[in-house]
Amino acid sequence: MSLMNRIMGHVYMFVESCAMAIENIMQNRLRSFLTVLGIMIGVTAVIALITTISAVSSSISSSFTSMGAGTMTLTTTGNDLKDGLDEEDMKRIIDIDHIRGLSPSVSLSCTVARENVSETSISVQGTNDTYFEVHEDLVKSGRKLNRIDTENMSRVCLINGDIVESFFYGVSPIGKTIYLNRIQFTIVGIYESDTSIASLLSGSPKILIPYTTALKMNSASLVTNATIYLDSASASKEVQPKLEELLDEIFSYEDETYKITTMESIEETMKTMMSMMSALLGGIASIALVVGGIGIMNMMLTSVTERTVEIGLKKAIGAEPGQIQMQFLIESFLLSMIGGLAGVVLGLILSAIMCHLMGTDFVISYGAIALGVGFSAAVGIIFGWSPARKASRLSPIDALRRM
């Protein structure tokens, strides 16, 4: 029974300490508000930055999945004997299980001319019929490149909307001729720019031609860049070792003769960068919490000085040092938590606004909330400990002398 009484006594003392802490905070509203403000700003910054970065990271991850699922990009540097892939090499790659096709990519920068209009440094890409089979909705009008175009090194091309506006404004370009580096090409179609990751990495060309024609214009015979299409997005882990084994054989097992890039590796790199940025910005924002903690310590030290007589009276009537220390520590903790909770709410509101302005989906980061609340609680305890300790060590005689 005595144990129960002791427990109830501690509970009663804790409740009384909380009530007295709240009362003291309310009596000094302006000072308490200014003290809480530092913690609130710090937590708001931490929550807003981390939540916004998490939302952006999630949006980027979804974009990678939608734009580049089931593709691999291959870049070859080769060796002294061979610096790229020939027709036989590409056929062997296509024969690997779970690979449904391969699209070579031969890039050129051409001067494009028609009648009295010309533009320099226009991005042109050589590709094949597989590219159009994968991107079925790419062609807006006209026809796609086909296998005959590739085999015959035909001088045909597809152009995008930018070229239409520059050279064929108000006129249908299908069947018309255009000159690429003074070589005549016939326009067979108009296409929309591809938004896949592979295309974005290659520079989003404005004109597409057969890759064999592009090789001839480059005075080359081997392909050094290609996009490999898989039959499923999950097949890359199974395909990559087989592809590496074949490429090792093609390039005589020499090191650093090729590079395979998967969407998963790009996505992982992006996530790592976003995590580092989130940690950096969160660390910078946390400085405001430290400043807020210093404000709490300053207020509590002032409060101890102002309430010296009160402390002396409590000790004179039997209050233990631990009880005095607990009262001031609770007051510091409550101040910090009020600022922390207000900061969480404001941080989430600010993050939602930022996500809306950037066009990304707002996702609540519970980790950021836990970090903000935990940090504010720690600040309240750490920076309130010294003033509370000082209050508990005051001599009742010295305190009562100030009456």
According to DSSP, the number of beta strands is 11
Number of self-contained structural domains: 2
- N-to-C terminal Cα separation, in Å? 41 Å
Q: What kind of sheet is the major sheet?
A: 6 strands, mixed, barrel
Mean pLDDT across all residues, rounded? 81
Percentage of residues in helical conformation = 55-70%
Strand and helix order: HHEHEEEHEHEHEEHEHEHEHHHHH
Task: Please tell me what the overall shape is.
Answer: elongated
> How are the strands of the largest sheet arranged?
3-4-9-6-8-7
Describe this structure in words.
- The protein is of the alpha+beta class and 403 residues long.
- It has 2 domains: 16-64 and 270-400, no CATH class; 68-268, no CATH class.
- The protein has helices at 2-27, 29-68, 87-94, 129-134, 147-151, 161-167, 197-202, 211-217, 236-250, 263-306, 308-316, 321-358, 366-392, 396-400, and strands at residues 71-76, 99-104, 106-114, 117-127, 139-142, 156-159, 177-180, 183-191, 207-210, 225-230, 258-262.
- A hairpin with a 2-residue loop joins strand 3 (106-114) and strand 4.
- The longest helix is centred in the last third of the chain and has 44 residues, at 263-306.
- It is elongated and about 105 Å long.
- 35% of the residues are buried.
